[in-house]
Design goal:
This protein is of the alpha/beta class. It has one domain: Rossmann fold (3-Layer(aba) Sandwich). Helix content is 46%, strand content 14%. It has 14 helices and seven strands. It has a seven-stranded mixed sheet, sandwiched between helices. Strand 2, helix 7 (123-136) and strand 3 form a beta-alpha-beta unit. Helix 1 packs across helix 5 (67-89). The relative contact order is 0.14.
């Protein structure tokens, strides 16, 4: 598989969203007030050969034109980084990153040497990702295991077969996954995580508000990105999100199943990390519909 500027299968699947996120992480990483330092983000984008995403990185005014996206990429990534590092500080030594996409946490975070990190995503995502790692000579900073499986299938069997230990506390994340799952799959995902989590486990998940109008939400997102995406490769967001979904009430579900959960919307998360929301009231409302939920499992 060639990734040196050549298109790969990743650009023709939901993996395109992972490349888009990587492009904005790369922009954020090069700003003076960067919240994150992701040396791999740009490498993934260049290796994909997707021109409109490469243009985001190479446009010196990308930060000015797309403050919401580059800043939110930094804020969201930083918040999940902090989630994992706080779990580590509390003694957790096992992490599972669901739909890991093209973030490189096993390679860029300062994990304890005895930390076991499992990433779950599709085969084509890992094939691309591991090739870029190999081409750049990257080495993971802890014990890293990739689990290539479909999260709508029997992924728990594959995870356990890879060495996951359900008897010890785990830090779970589902950063950009849930809106891409049909409603029944959202509930199954939460049920499986709950089944595999012992007391003291932690969970961070990105969801949309249960009351969100997905048609309007998607329309606002597409309007906000159309100028820079242009005639791009791969499926549209509308083809990947289940617009008729009833969105899971993540906080309510978790609090009712032995967890203590809280939520913060993306606008408040931006404020928490000192980032100004320089956008229209309508766009701010779109950020209010994006929730980051964190939870700890009670004894």
């Amino acid at each position: 598989m060639t990734t040196n500027g050549a298109h790969t299968d990743i650009a023709n699947t939901v993996g395109l969203t992972a490349l888009g996120s990587a492009a904005f992480r790369a922009v954020e990483s090069t700003t003076e007030d960067a919240l994150i330092s992701d040396e791999f983000a740009g490498k993934f984008v260049y290796a994909s050969g997707v021109e409109h995403l490469i243009a985001i990185i190479e446009n010196p005014t990308a930060k000015a034109h797309w403050p919401a996206f580059s800043s939110m990429a930094g804020v969201r990534t930083k918040s999940y980084d902090d989630f994992f590092l706080n779990a580590v500080a509390a003694g957790t030594r096992q992490a599972v990153i669901l739909a890991s996409g093209l973030d490189a946490r096993p390679y860029r975070l300062d994990w304890p040497a005895d930390m076991a990190v499992y990433e779950i995503d599709l085969t084509e995502v890992f094939a691309f990702k591991k090739q870029v790692y190999a081409d750049t000579g990257a080495v993971p900073k802890t014990q890293w295991t990739d689990v290539a499986t479909d999260l709508t299938g029997d992924w728990t069997t594959d995870l356990i077969a890879a060495g996951f230990d359900p008897t010890i506390p785990t830090a779970w994340s589902a950063e950009g996954l849930v809106p891409y799952l049909p409603t029944d799959a959202q509930y199954r995902l939460f049920e499986k995580i709950d089944e595999l989590s012992t007391a003291g486990s932690h969970f961070a998940v990105g969801v949309t508000s249960p009351s969100v109008d997905m048609q309007k939400f998607l329309a606002a997102s597409q309007e906000h990105t159309k100028d820079i995406t242009g005639e791009r490769e791969g499926p549209s967001m509308a083809e990947m999100i289940f617009l008729e979904n009833e969105q899971i009430d993540a906080v309510g579900w978790l609090n009712g199943h032995g967890w203590t959960a809280t939520a913060i919307d993306a606008a408040d998360l931006m404020n928490r990390y000192g980032r100004e929301l320089a956008m229209s009231e309508q766009d701010v409302q779109s950020f209010r519909d994006l929730l980051c939920v964190t939870a700890a499992k009670r004894a």
